[in-house]
Amino acid sequence: MLAVDGGNSKTDVALIAEDGEVLAVGRGAGFEPQSAGVPAAIDVIGETAGRMLPGVPPPYADHIAAYVAGADLPIEEERLRAELLRRGYSRSVVVGNDTFALLRSGSSARWGAAVVCGAGINAVAVAPDGRVARFPALGRLSGDWGGGYGLAEEALWHAARAEDGRGPATGLTGAVAAAFGTRTVEEAVIAFHFGDLPMDRLHELVAPLLALAPADPIARGIVDRMAEEVALLGTVAMRRAGLLESRCEVVLGGGVLTARDPLLTALIEERYAAAAPHATLIVTEVPPIVGAALYGLDHFGAPPAAYDRVRARFVGQRVEGQGAIAGGR
């Protein structure tokens, strides 16, 4: 099978045998069907597989298990699946949102809840009987707040207002200037406006925001809200799937959460302890490609040793975003 983890900044592909042996791995460009279109996103998988398996024509495998960003609605999953089948990369295809792979990679069972907080934020819950609770995850249009990009926008907003007098003073003003090499926050804002600073650099504000939060009330307020959103997404998904009153693992992933900032982590733990006392929080220790691979092994009905072999192959590899903040998803 081909296991695929498609994120906004990169696409990981692995060719894996039914016994769990990882035969080849490759990394391609970002997977962005929402902006580049479905065909261009699927091109990334094909190009990565082609480089990974030089001289091998499609089909590359018997099955593709693709768990990707940008597949936020069932209809989007189906459009991506149809395009993969049309290309003939494999004989069967399953496409799902990347939150499902996070859940599968981190939970000890095949059910539970997962919250990803990387560049954006999303969550899912799967009950033992197969019921699924998920969110549209379309940004502010669907009620979302946070993720690395949202945190950075909020930090810049407060810094701009502090500098010109519309808001209270905060160390975020100096953090913005230091992060982007400008004399003032206004200079940074104008540089973003004209494209002199690319918008993908905005996430560089997340690390200084978290560093300031223990002593800066404005930064602390932003981090408090982020913790609240991570807890809300998980607990609401659990309640909708009928899991809130039972023991349930909640897998946390994405760069903001795998960085394990002490304050943010403590605030998240406090909120889950109050709202979902039966929940066990797990910060994933393996990259998301593992979740896609495990789903692929499910398709084959693989033996337990195959699952162990896949996990062993990827344990110790850097989780996307770990050691950094907000990169990757």
Automatic annotation (TrEMBL):
This protein's UniProt keywords: Kinase, Transferase
Lineage of origin: Bacteria, Bacillati, Actinomycetota, Actinomycetes, Streptosporangiales
Positions of the ATPase BadF/BadG/BcrA/BcrD type domain: 4-296
Species whose genome carries this gene: Acrocarpospora corrugata
Superkingdom, natural source: Bacteria
Protein name (record): N-acetylglucosamine kinase
GO molecular function, one term: kinase activity
